[in-house]
Give the backbone structure.
Amino acid sequence: MPSDKRKQSLYFPEDYLEEIKKESIRQDRSMSWLVQKAWEISREKIKAFPSANDYLPDSEDEEEP
């Protein structure tokens, strides 16, 4: 698979960033590499999560006031 090197900003809570940074230092890898590997490992599990839209009521089921 060819590598796409577009920049993208992601926002993480401070404690997540600190853990990712410590682990990237421990593994002597970049934070980007670590997050990419974490996604590769977890993607199928995450794809199994229900969509936020799965929780929206159907418009036909809504009660009118």
